[in-house]
Design a protein that fits this description.
Radius of gyration: 13 Å
Shape: globular
Number of helices: 1
Strand order of the largest sheet: 1-2-3-6-7-8
Strand content: over 45%
Order of helices and strands: EHEEEEEEE
Number of domains: 1
Distance between the termini: 13 Å
Largest sheet: 6 strands, antiparallel, barrel
Structural class: mainly beta
Number of strands: 8
Length: 109
């Protein structure tokens, strides 16, 4: 499925402060590979998310469960990175350049 057609809902964050902004629905804009070879999904919420004094229009997501991928049509637990600038998100990006905020559940919609 093309990234632009993939709709998801995020809910149930491990971090109770981030859980206040969930559930959150949106679409996957792109798939990108990090410098460590893992594929991440660039998620764009339907509405910008205000968290910890900043507005976020994008997150990076990656499945935590072996054998589950974002886009395979199944619910999975994901890592969530906060993206302050979409310009930094391109193949070869370094995960360390982004704040890992939480883990949450990703549900296809």
């Amino acid at each position: 499925m093309p990234a632009s057609k993939l709709r998801l809902r995020l809910e149930g964050a491990d971090d109770s402060s981030f859980d206040q902004v969930l559930p959150c629905a949106g679409t996957i804009d792109a798939f990108v590979k990090a410098s460590d070879g893992h594929e991440w999904s660039l998620f764009r919420p339907d509405q910008p998310v205000f968290f910890a004094g900043h507005t976020y229009r994008y997150f990076l997501l990656r499945s935590r469960w072996a054998g589950r991928e974002i886009g395979d049509g199944t619910k999975t637990s994901v890592f969530l990175l906060l993206v302050r600038s979409k310009k930094k998100v391109r193949d070869g990006f370094k995960v360390e350049d982004f704040r890992i905020i939480t883990r949450c559940m990703m549900i296809p919609v």
